[in-house]
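Troubleshooting: if your tokenizer reports a length mismatch, compare your output against this known-good record of 366 residues.
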Amino acid sequence: MTTIRVPSGQILTVVPVDDTSERKKLADGIGEGAFEFAYDPSKCLLDLRNSSHQRQQQQQHIAQLQAYFELWLLLYYIFTTHSVTQMIDVQFPDVRELDTQQAALIMAFVLEPDDAHAPHMYCPRSVFFQISLPPSGPYKCWLGSHFTNATYPRYCDNTSAKQARDPWRPPKPRAGTLIYSRYVPTLNKMFTMRALSIEDDADTFSEWMNNDRVAEFWNMKGDKDSVHLPYLKTLDGDKHVVTVIGSLDHEQFLYAELYYVAEDHLAPFADGAGLYDRGFHLLVGNESLRGPHIVRAWLTSIVHCLFLQDPRTQYVFLEPRTDNKKLIGYLLQHGFEKLKEFTFPHKRAALMRIDRDAFFKVGPAQ
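Known-good structure output:
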């Protein structure tokens, strides 16, 4: 039996059909008729041809929607538990049991109708992890409900010349809103990010900023009321920045500022940055949740979140201090490239960048 969690935290269990069969059954607690399947890792073949999933008493469109959702769960299970798998060949029992054209559209599959009664669909890992929501069902996928992954118009339609050139982006989430959630198999923990609440999080923020290790890079030691609250209130009113708190299984450990590069002080130095490209500043304040295994989880999750929030985002940038060799090393390990070094008024920085295609070739760390 294999037990993992879906992005919203619910348990997903996969069990053998019986002691002699190679087939398994998806048992996700969504109701009657668990989905039976076989997966051959050596061929990356997901075989549904002898599926026990029959819903003949249901209306056809309801059965199809349920099938799409359960297929998403199967792909999620395989990509999560087989981290080297880059492409899954899905083999269906009969074209009449699933509207393959519609499924291909919803799931972003590549459809190969080799046989009219046994079509194949190919789902690349790079495509699957860009699907921000499952096609149906009770689970949310990665992004909080605040984000829709819609394609926004390029500019607002306002009368003033300045506003007419403002890029139209998702609005800032309300304080405390869940922004992102992902199960990290190697940690067996849920990584989540929520919008910072000044009322609830100012004490934690102040404590972390007064940590000697954090202060070495942030230089914000001081009193909560005179230093940290004014800082957080300024960012709260800045539409180009979203402040967040990150947790592992509800244990808070991380503060980050997710920003749009075009309106940031980084903009003059960020070669090739567009209106929708993102960056982030970050600190880990919880001493018990540090180390390379934790870094790979939060680093790839934050980048995943930023690319999912807007399909127009092509690059994510960071600008660590040049003497922060440890962070620069982690960034290089996880797909970032170092473009150059440059001088801010307050530090000498390295310009680090990762592009969408490079990230999704690997996806968030498992």
